[in-house]
Design a protein that fits this description.
The structure holds two protein chains of two kinds. Chain A is built from eight helices and no strands. In chain A, helix 7 (about 205-225) packs antiparallel against helix 8. Chain A has helices at about 5-25, 30-55, 65-80, 90-110, 120-155, 170-195, 205-225, 230-255. In chain A, about 75% of the residues lie in helices and about 0% in strands. Chain A has two domains: about 1-120; about 120-255, no CATH class. The two termini of chain A are about 35 Å apart. In chain B, the strands form two sheets. A six-stranded parallel β-sheet of chain B has the order 7-6-5-8-9-10. A four-stranded antiparallel β-sheet of chain B has the order 2-3-1-4, with helices on both faces. Chain B folds into three domains: about 5-150, Glutamyl-tRNA reductase, N-terminal domain (Beta Polymerase, domain 2, 2-Layer Sandwich), CATH 3.30.460; about 155-295, Rossmann fold (3-Layer(aba) Sandwich); about 330-410, no CATH class. Chain B has helices at about 15-20, 25-35, 60-70, 75-80, 85-100, 110-120, 125-145, 155-165, 180-195, 205-215, 250-260, 290-330, 330-355, 360-390, 395-405, 405-410, and strands spanning about 5-10, 40-45, 50-55, 85, 175-180, 195-205, 220, 235-240, 265-270, 285-290. The chains are: A mainly alpha, B alpha/beta. The interface of A and B includes residues 162, 163, 168, 225 and 233 of A.
């Protein structure tokens, strides 16, 4: 029965995604409903993950669907830290529909069931957790980059309603995305380092190659920021990096 | 019951030349209140002059005379533009004024401060004190519970709101002002009020630029020296009277490398335009001219009008609360007399029985009788207040006075 916790989580995330769309018409009730949807959904998903961890003898999120479940929880958790404040609420419009969709996918793939799980050992569990946390942070940074490009376009086009929708300030989005990338890159570096401890000759595969490309892309982004690659350019590099993240996640499970 | 009377003139029916004849500063408002005597408040803004009186008898003539006197030779014109409101209608009007719903720009924030100042300069008694406190509460409530006051209502405030949309908090952001006229100053002041720092004022005539620079705590420069300043500025506000372009695309493009990708907001309020429109095509540069800003203001004003419907509902709710309170004044003396009579009977009976009771018994009897009275009188009190709200208060009060002989008791005393 506890497995059904995915239902309230999914419903709450879905409600939040719809309510964030309502927030586009102006600040008010829709935004508050969205915020509560995110909070309640995250609590339900947390309870689900705790239940999975308690009932499993090994690592319960070793499958692609299980990883996706954990990944969604990390993304929404990172968003919850500050995303629910009125100024950043609209970021939820970029994050919550994806979160709801991925959680539904994880559910359909059996990633929310209570099973014994794999016994991958501590090192691999730490490696997977670090990599997923890093990818979750990078997903959030991509959400900020998308919001940046949308708002920048509205400002450039002198849209009449540019002040009607409460969007985070451009400069804040740019700096916050860079900080999120920095933190995520640190986690990714650690995750790669931990994974390297188990590395044996002949293990190198496409997933590792793309992971290294992800690392190189985001590291370049941070270096280039010092050279003036901020704003639009940084957002575009950020999104390019996210395309690689979107590739590496399924690649890890289906092509390794 | 004390009646509330409002007589006033406003932008709805009176042209500016008439309104300026009756406009008063705070000292003059105070003087008028003293002349009127009793409970009186005078509210005077650029859009209205209103006299609020609370009197036992009809005070309309007194208020009309006070306002008409101000118009001097134009008294006849003024009397056609005057409005006269009483009790609930007067309260509703003041609540709408405080909420900014009677203003030219719906939801403008200045009026709430003006209502507060008028209240403080007035001579409120129980009725006007309650009225103005509730009006201030209504004004605050409307601004908190609706978005009517959130969006900019003028071109300078739209420029400042756009700066916040780009940079967030403006604390420490450097502003470069081109031109030393009124428009430049108004926009600069709006930015300063939100935390920005005016770094430089550049003007063709340096002496004029120095005057404004002094007022804003900035440096003054000649217009042809602004290129070097673009590197450090976050916001450029331009409103010169130059005939052609003052800052070209190339000038800004040259400064971009040194800016290391920091965004730049440029606001061109001049006609003809000072800033090359092609600047908007540069990466990280956002150029708004006066038409763009007007379009933003019009759009946000339509949003304000949309919010006005919600604000009207809140105001009506507050006006109803005031009406109930005001109507309850009809029955308050009767309720007080009834309670006093009940207490008197209880005290006298307790005194008669006092000698036969121990100290503990006396305290117990006191407590029990006090609770009986409170419970017995609770429902009649509520019902009388409800009847007062439904305009039957006087009838109910008379019946209660007759049934309990309240008038007779008072006469005997």
């Amino acid at each position: 029965m506890a497995e059904l916790l995915v239902v309230p989580a999914l419903l709450a995330y879905g409600e939040a995604a719809f309510a964030y769309a309502g927030e586009l018409r102006g600040p008010g009730l829709a935004g508050r409903l969205a915020t509560w949807g995110v909070r309640l959904g995250w609590l339900a998903q947390t309870a689900l993950l705790v239940g999975q961890a308690a009932s499993a003898e090994g690592f319960p999120w070793g499958t692609w669907a299980g990883s996706l479940n954990l990944f969604v929880w990390l993304v929404v958790g990172a968003y919850l830290i500050w995303g629910c404040t009125p100024r950043y609420r609209l970021l939820g419009l970029a994050v919550m529909p994806i979160a709801a969709l991925l959680l539904a996918l994880a559910w359909a793939g059996g990633g929310t069931t209570f099973e014994e799980g794999d016994r991958p050992g501590v090192v691999l569990a730490v490696h997977v957790a670090l990599m997923l946390a890093a990818f979750a942070g990078l997903t959030l940074a991509a959400g900020m980059a998308a919001l940046y490009l949308w708002q920048e376009r509205r400002l450039k086009r002198h849209e009449r309603g540019v002040l009607k929708v409460r969007v985070p300030p451009l400069d804040a989005l740019d700096r916050l995305a860079a900080r999120t990338v920095l933190g995520s890159l640190a986690l990714l570096t650690l995750g790669i380092g931990v994974g390297a401890a188990r590395f044996e000759r002949g293990d190198f595969d496409a997933a590792m190659a793309v992971t290294l490309a992800v690392w190189a892309t985001y590291a370049s982004l941070l270096v280039l920021r010092h050279e003036g690659w901020r704003g639009r350019r940084a957002a575009l590099v950020n999104l390019a990096g996210f395309v690689l993240v979107a590739i590496v996640l399924p690649l890890t499970h289906f092509a390794s | 019951m004390t009646a509330l009377t409002l007589v006033g003139v406003s932008h709805h029916r009176a042209p500016i030349d008439l309104r300026e004849r009756v406009a008063l500063d705070l000292d003059a408002c105070r003087a008028m209140v003293e002349r009127l005597g009793g409970e009186a408040v005078v509210l005077s803004t650029c859009n209205r002059t209103e006299v609020y009186l609370a009197r036992e008898e009809d005070a309309e003539d007194e208020a009309v005379a006070a306002v008409t006197e101000l118009a001097g030779d134009h008294a006849a014109d003024l009397s056609a533009a005057l409005y006269r409101l009483r009790d609930e209608a007067a309260a509703l009007h003041l609540f709408r004024v405080a909420a900014g719903l009677d203003s030219l720009v719906p939801g403008e924030g200045e009026i709430l401060g003006q209502v507060r100042s008028a209240f403080e300069a007035g001579a409120p008694g129980p009725l006007l004190d309650r009225l103005f406190r509730q009006a201030l509460h209504t004004g605050r409530r409307v601004r908190v519970e609706t978005a009517i006051g959130e969006s900019p209502a003028s071109v300078p405030s739209a420029a400042a709101a756009l700066a916040q949309q780009v940079f967030g908090e403006l604390g420490g952001r450097r502003v470069l002002v081109l031109g030393a006229g009124k428009i430049s100053e108004a926009t600069a002041r709006n930015l300063v009020s939100r935390g920005a720092e005016i770094a430089v004022v550049a003007n063709r005539t340096i002496a004029h630029g120095e005057d404004l620079a002094r007022k804003l705590g900035a440096r003054a420069l000649a217009l042809d020296a602004v290129a070097a300043e673009l590197e450090h500025a976050d916001v450029v506000v331009s409103a010169t009277s130059a005939a052609g372009v003052v800052v070209s695309r190339e000038t800004v493009a040259n400064a971009l490398h040194a800016r290391k990708g920091r965004p730049l907001l440029l606001v061109d309020l001049a006609v003809p335009r000072d800033l090359d429109p092609a600047i908007n095509g540069l990466e990280g540069c956002f150029l708004y001219d006066v038409d763009d800003l007007r379009a933003v203001v019009e759009e946000t004003l339509s949003g304000r009008r949309g919010e006005a419907a919600s604000a009207e509902r809140l105001v009506a709710e507050e006006a109803e609360r005031f009406r109930d309170w005001h109507a309850a004044l009809d029955v308050v003396p009767t309720i007080a007399s009834l309670r006093a009579l009940a207490e008197e009977i209880r005290d006298s009976e307790l005194a008669r029985a006092g000698g036969r009771l121990s100290e503990t018994e006396r305290r117990n009897v006191e407590s029990v009788t006090s609770q009986i009275l409170a419970k017995l009188l609770h429902l009649p009190t509520i019902r009388m207040k409800e009847a007062a709200a439904a305009a039957d208060g006087v009838v109910y009060a008379d019946v209660v006075r007759h049934l309990f002989g309240l008038g007779e008791e008072e006469r005997r005393r």
